[in-house]
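input
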Amino acid sequence: MTNTQNGAPPMLGLMQEWPLTLDKFIEHAKRWHGKREIISRRADGRIERRNYMQVYDDAMHISGALLAAGIGTGDRVATLAMNSVEHLAAWYGISGIGAVYHTLNPRLFLDQLVYIVNHADDRLIFADGMFAPILAGLLPRCPGVRRIVYLTPPAEPVILPVPSGSLEDFVAGHDGTYAWGMFDEHSAAGLCYTSGTTGLPKGVLYSHRSNFLHALISISPDVLNLSSADTILAIVPMFHANAWGLAYATPGIGANLVLPGPRLDGASVHELIIKEKVTFAAGVPTVWLALLDYLDAQGLDLGTLKRVIIGGSAMPETMLHRFRDRGVEVTHAWGMTEMSPMGTVCALTPPVTDMPFEEQIPYRMKQGRPPFTIDMRLVDEDGKVLPHDGQTVGHLQVRGPGVTKAYLGEADHALDAEGWFDTGDIATICPYGYMQITDRAKDVIKSGGEWISSLEIESAVSMHPKVALAAAIGVPHPKWAERPVLFLTLRPGHEAEPEEFIEFLTTRIAKWWLPDAVYFLDEIPVGATGKVDKKKLRVICGEMAGVA
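output
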């Protein structure tokens, strides 16, 4: 790079070289917040308590064991585990030596997991014992995996085609004094695959630098607003897009971290919030719905909990009010695996904060504003940039240091000629900068040549007091090309007829948006990341209509 004025090279600053590698977070926590706790709940309900000094040492021992096992720079090491202190230590132990942690989602189908493990070329898997049956089906089809290390023991012995053993045995004999970092901050750190809703899963390869910057931005007041005084409950899984960065942000500020394991029912989540004096929690709407229904049924409160961030799918407006009635501030957020994952956070800024609460609601229900390091825009089908007027709908594009530029193993970049990544979402952006997803491009309902937002139908009907969860899809129509159909799950103890919800929507959405049919399900299907599975709903709709 040269100076455009005189052709001379740029004058460099005289600052220290300090690569932005992820080991810095746990080293800082060990040195300056060493006694703060990581609370980990086992599948059987037992609580394991460690502090940052201990987790640092655990991770160091894992690093030594990995090096002795032949794992080196750039090698992929998979984790098949729920949120736990061992899982956290494994992440730091893997990435500290320049290897790449690869999170496997245990909710995926076996064929998907086989594809992902082979595509990533994973060499070793850290796994919770509860997933031993998955490994038994996986490993015969994944010849590159050479060893299994159990973070927690299996309930009963399982025969595997590769050596396996406990974490304790794996790290035994390693003194835990290894040099972390010492490599380029652009080096790969983590690997997470998309859910594959429109084809085969694709690998998103995070760098140390991208995860580092993401964590720094996330703790700021207008994003997650975290501090060392917080006790943070990370319900969002570590296998879901970096646990929204909490595995780095939390040790970076020295907050207590609560890792809930597999028990995410309302009673179990409430127990952790109360017993551990949780102040901040992050998770998807389905988990919060179960918690709120449990609180209503038992007449309980949320203790010290003050802030909740909700992402993964759109938040029903009723959830905002139900938390607010209990003194909890709810922040809506949106992101993607390809964005590390945070894209927008619905932190309120003037002049919205000057409005009465009822007038703030339309803004609170949007996906939010992009924090620093994220830029976004709307374009039409021809790539023309669209205005931020809150009305014009377009394809949402993003760019920034935490946005992928290509998928693992694919020669083509995922960006357009100007460096923008197409999210696959249809959205608006209002004059105050608040973005609102109106649909996924693949889910938008096009009726009579006009777009109908399935998310707006869902949001409107979710205000009905009997509705627990709603999902709208488009189905083929001989005249209009597509028409909306609505699926509902009712709150416990309620019964209803379809006409009741059509009447309810009449004054809330355009008449031509009204669903052609309303179906009730005991449970609306969700995918591996907790989002409504609209592919399955289309199959169910066909069966109900008698055409499948």
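quick obs: The chain has a mean pLDDT of 93.
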